[in-house]
Write a sequence for this structure.
């Protein structure tokens, strides 16, 4: 049974690729609201992370720059600058790191520690908070030739074995958020094709019920804010169940929160 949903149209931009949706029965949908989360320096967001205490929000932009959100000023502040990076990692021409940041993540055990990757971000692999050895992974949009076929997988033995997740044809980004009330497993969010239908989805199954062959996903949106740009990053809120942040490939970001 479908539930009512509401979208707040604060900003919209059309300019990214549109994924076709094959005819299928509509999945369950979640009631809530999308809001804009602007980024002043470039709109291509490929990495976003939130600390477990909710105090530190970071993201990576299209210029390979990395930023942190200042709650006092409601603005993004640049992390990668000549004064904050080791001298050997600074390019004299522009004062920024030569390599740039391809992925960014707040350490689960320390909200003041941030990890950044410089391997071009080709493969996305993330451990499940609070569950040692449990890992999700997808190839990500490596290039236009295989972009629609990024496989989504799960491991429960420390990456020794991976099982493809059934009925998920493609995932462009995924993340974790606070568990649903009564659940012992973080909520899992994906942006991709589930049962051949594009959208942003959430799974809230308990750990014992989490089965890659039978897991079901609740749709919380298709094109947030009416934006057809590709979603390149997804991150759930660690302190508020149902809130999830997404970043677009050219027009900033948005966040979804459950209706009151």
């Amino acid at each position: 049974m479908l539930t009512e949903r509401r979208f707040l149209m604060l900003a919209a931009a059309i300019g990214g690729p549109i994924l076709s949706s094959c005819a299928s029965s509509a999945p369950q949908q979640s009631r809530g609201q999308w809001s804009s989360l602007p980024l002043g320096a470039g709109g291509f967001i490929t990495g976003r992370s939130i600390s477990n205490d909710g105090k530190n929000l970071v993201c990576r932009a299209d210029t390979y720059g990395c930023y942190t959100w200042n709650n006092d000023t409601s603005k993004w502040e640049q992390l990668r600058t000549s004064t904050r990076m080791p001298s050997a990692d600074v390019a004299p021409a522009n004062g920024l790191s030569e390599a740039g940041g391809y992925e960014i993540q707040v350490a689960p055990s320390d909200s003041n520690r941030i990890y950044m990757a410089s391997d071009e971000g080709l493969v996305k692999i993330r451990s499940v908070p609070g569950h040692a050895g449990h890992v999700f992974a997808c190839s990500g949009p490596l290039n236009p030739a295989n972009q629609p076929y990024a496989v989504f997988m799960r491991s429960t033995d420390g990456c020794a074995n991976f099982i493809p997740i059934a009925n998920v044809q493609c995932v462009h980004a995924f993340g974790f958020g606070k568990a649903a009330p009564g659940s012992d497993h973080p909520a899992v969010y994906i942006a991709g094709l589930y049962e051949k239908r594009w959208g942003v989805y959430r799974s809230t199954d308990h750990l014992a019920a989490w089965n890659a062959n039978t897991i079901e996903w609740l749709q919380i949106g298709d094109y947030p804010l009416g934006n057809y740009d590709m979603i390149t990053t997804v991150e759930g809120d660690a302190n508020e169940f149902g809130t999830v942040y997404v970043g677009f490939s050219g027009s900033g970001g948005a966040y979804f929160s459950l209706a009151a």
